[in-house]
Design goal:
There is one protein chain. Helices cover about 35% and strands about 30% of the residues. It has about 150 residues and is an alpha+beta fold. The chain has a single domain (about 1-145), classed as Transcriptional regulator MraZ domain (Chemotaxis protein chec, 3-Layer(aba) Sandwich), CATH 3.40.1550.20. The protein is globular and about 45 Å long.
Length: about 150
C-alpha cells in the first residue's frame, strides 16, 4: 500500500529516483517492475502501477467494448501508452519522453502514493489541483458518509 506525497526531481535524462521509503516495496511486492501510463482522468499526471496490479487493470480495460469511443479512449491512454520499467542500480526509472511532454512533467514533480499505485504529477498541475477545494455541490453521498 502506497501513501504519501513526495517532491521529486526529474533528472536531465528524464529519470525519477524512487523515494527510499518505497524502494523495498517496489523491489519486493512489485518484483522491481512498474508500469507507467497516462492518468485518463487528470491532465498533468501519470500513473505508476506495480506490474501485478497493472495486469488486473489492463485486463479490465481491455475487456471493455470497442464500440464506445470513451472505452477506446481509455484503452489508448492506459493500455496503448503503457511502458514497463525497472529501476536501475540507483533506483531510477526512465519516464517515456512522450509521456513527460504530454503531461508537462519536467524537472520538478510530485509523487503521490495512492494505495495500489502511484500518481506522478507535474509540479504546476499538482499545485493547481491541490489548491482546489471540494465544494458543497461536489460532495457525493459516499463522501457525506465519511467521518472526517
Amino acid at each position: 500500500m502506497f501513501q504519501g506525497e513526495t517532491a521529486i526531481t526529474i533528472d536531465d535524462k528524464g529519470r525519477l529516483t524512487i523515494p527510499t521509503a518505497y524502494r523495498e516495496q517496489v523491489a519486493g511486492e512489485c518484483a522491481n517492475r512498474l508500469v507507467i501510463t497516462y492518468n485518463p482522468f487528470e491532465a498533468g499526471s501519470l500513473w505508476l502501477f506495480p506490474h501485478a496490479e497493472w495486469e488486473k487493470v489492463r485486463d479490465q480495460v481491455n475487456a471493455l467494448s470497442k464500440v464506445k469511443a470513451a472505452h477506446r479512449d481509455m484503452q489508448m491512454k492506459l493500455v496503448g501508452a503503457a511502458a514497463v520499467v525497472e529501476p536501475d542500480g540507483a533506483a531510477r526509472v526512465l519516464l517515456p519522453a512522450s509521456q513527460r511532454a504530454t503531461t508537462g512533467i519536467e524537472k520538478k514533480a510530485v509523487l503521490l502514493g495512492m494505495g495500489n499505485k502511484f500518481e506522478l504529477w507535474s509540479e504546476q498541475a499538482h499545485l493547481a489541483k491541490i489548491r482546489q477545494s471540494i465544494g458543497e455541490d461536489d460532495i457525493t453521498s459516499e463522501m457525506a458518509e465519511l467521518r472526517l
